[in-house]
Amino acid sequence: MTVEDCYQVGYIIKPHGLKGDVQIYLDVDDPKQYKNMESVFVLQGQSLVPFFLTSMSMNRDKAIVNFEDIDTIEMAKSLKGLELYMPLTALPQLEGEDFYYHEIQGFLLKDEKLGDLGTVSSVVDAGHQLLIAVAHNSGKEILIPLSDALIVSLDKEAKLIIMNVPDGLVDVYLNDES
Description:
- The protein has helices at 73-77, 169-174, and strands spanning 6-16, 21-26, 39-44, 47-59, 62-67, 83-87, 108-111, 115-125, 130-136, 141-145, 151-155, 160-163.
- It is mostly beta strands.
C-alpha cells in the first residue's frame, strides 16, 4: 500500500494517559463515519504501517484510540504527530457530479469561452478557499477557485470539467509582465 493509494483521515495529536492510548484528530467531513474503524495506516518515514485499533472513544472530530501492541506512554509518545491514512477503496462511491478532490486529478478543464485550459494537477487548500491547480497548455500553472457556482458540468467517464472561469483570471497567469 502506498500513500498514492490512500487518503489522509487525520493525525495523532498526543499520548493520552499512561497505558499507550493516543488522541487523534479526524480531518474528515463526517468523523462519525469512522467510529467503527478497525485499522488505519500510520505514515512512518516513507512507509505506511497498518495499526489495528483495540478501542476508540469519539468526541466530535477527536478520538481516544488504543492500538494493538502499543501499551506504554513511551510507545504512544513515539507516534505523536504521525499522519493516519485509509485506502481509497474505503471511500463511499459518490453519485452524479459529486466528486472527491483526488478524483479530478488528470481531468481536462475547459472554459465555456476559452476552450481547453489544461489538465487538473491537484486541488489546493488555500485556507480560505479551495483552488484547482491546472497545468495550462502554455506550460504555466493556473489556479482557479473550486466553486459549485463556476462548475458548469463534470463528466467522470470523459474525465472532463467544464467551468465558467471568471473573465480575466486566466490572463493574470499568462501575462509575462507580472
